[in-house]
Amino acid sequence: MAKSIMIQGTMSNVGKSIIAAALCRIFKQDGFSCAPFKSQNMALNSYITSEGLEMGRAQVFQAEAAGIEPSVLMNPILLKPTDNVGSQVIVNGEVLGNMKAADYFKYKKRLVPDIMNAYNTLAEKYDIIVIEGAGSPAEINLKKDDIVNMGMAKMVGSPVLLAGDIDRGGVFAQLLGTLMLLEEDEKSLVKGLLINKFRGDKNILKPGLDMLEQMGGKPVAGVIPYIYCDLEDEDSLSGKLEQTENSGIIDIAVIRLPKISNFTDFDVFRQFKDVSVRYVSKVSELKKPDLIIIPGTKNTISDMKWLRESGLETAIKKLVSENIPAFGICGGYQIMGKKIEDPDCTENGGSIAGMGLLDIVTVFKNEKTRTRVSGKFKNISGIFSVLSGKQFSGYEIHMGESYGIKNSMLEFSDGSTGGDSHDNIYGCYVHGIFDENGIAESIVRSLYTAKGLEYIGKGIDRKAYKEQQYDILAEEVRKNIDMDFVYKIIEEGV
User: Which superfamily, per CATH, for 3-231+468-492?
Assistant: First the structure.
């Protein structure tokens, strides 16, 4: 059976996912087989495995860092928020149903066998399991029947490293306060402390570290600097979503829908030196970009209402009338159509007029489409006609079906068609469609040409680029964490 190490945090967004990914990479580099694990993830960024099962993307990039194929075993429970008090509950990659928070809180202990089966299956195959917690273990209102933080650590007997975020301030209070709120048996599982996202002179920090160790009774295992590498972010707390100003020659504006999902679809464009990817939630922020992207969403109808009420619908349509290209992915594709209908109350029921940029009508169904796809672009018109004939691959996750396609954009490997396009307006259900075969580069070149400029950059191999970023991450973490100590606590266990 595998040994384990668990990364917990003092709060959300302290960098647990990134630290876990770094350790996965380091263990791989050191010759160990390793797998990530998170019993319960809450995120709107999800992924479809080769088996057609849905899981959180954090464990996907951790698996990539470990050099292994993502498996739903790495994330047996995924919660996708539908509103402020409820989520779609996905267990072992399949939809269990929608639950209010209070109902799920009562239900979740019934999922322990699923968690343990997933964990034990991985533990039989790998040398080390890198477990990630969620939020904070010190949420005293949630500690009863916990299955993701100390509850998880207890179930598998895993040593814990507790991480705090110094970049947001108050890191000593974060760490000491968290330790104070833990029960003694929980505190005993914490073997060391990590300070993450440090900028500055460690010599100035040293007196604080000494006091932290003295007051907390736990050694500081590492002070990890703010690492500048390009990796995926798990959820809507991502700092990427805060960029609203153009900083490049090419300006790509992604509409920041209230329930935005799978915004990692557009990370590939960030690899291009003079391309700015910014997220827009106000008309005043939209300005006149070179490309507008309407992303996926967990609540298509409510986000369509928001788009209309915010004035962004009108602003986008005006720009489209001036030949600014627009591309919709998944829920964004549905929004671009004539109408969205929800007869079975898959979301909240009813129907709403879409933007009318495409002729499609979308009807929600209770059955979720979950599949990996591949194929090629058909002969399409407009600014991105250069994509015609290019191969693509990706995955689909959606609850609706769209009808009335006039100019199908994609031909799938099974002979079926999908997506729709008209002039400079494009839409489809495929997540990850920009990632491979020079598709993003072709789009960037076309945008340069439209401005009367020549793109002189080189194409980027997305997979090779990501591998490079994982190595950068591992190198920086290895330099700033006591790996001898980490291996020691893994070997000793609890």
Answer: P-loop containing nucleotide triphosphate hydrolases (3.40.50.300)
Q: Kindly name the residue from 24, 34, 398, 431 that is annotated as catalytic.
A: 431
- Can 330 be counted among the known catalytic residues? yes
263, amino acid identity: F
Q: Which of 493, 12, 62, 467 has its CA nearest to residue 239?
A: 12
Query: For residues 4 and 489, is the Cβ–Cβ distance under 8 A?
Result: no
Whole-prediction pTM:
0.90
DSSP 409: -
DSSP states of 30-63: TT--EEEE-SEEE-S-EEE-TTS-EEEHHHHHHH
Is residue 238 scored above 60 in pLDDT? no
- 398: annotated active-site residue: no
The phi and psi torsions of 296 (rounded to 5 degrees) equal -70, 160
Q: Which of 38, 82, 48, 36 is nearest to 265 (CA)?
A: 48
7 sits in which H/E element: strand 3-9
CATH class of 250-452: alpha beta
The closest alpha carbon to 251, from 285, 296, 297, 295, belongs to 285
Could you tell me how many residues make up the chain? 494
Whether the pLDDT of residue 12 is over 80: the answer is yes
| Predicted pLDDT of residue 235 | 54
In the chain, residues under CATH classification 3.40.50.880 are 250-452
Catalytic residue, chosen from 34, 330, 398, 428, is: 330
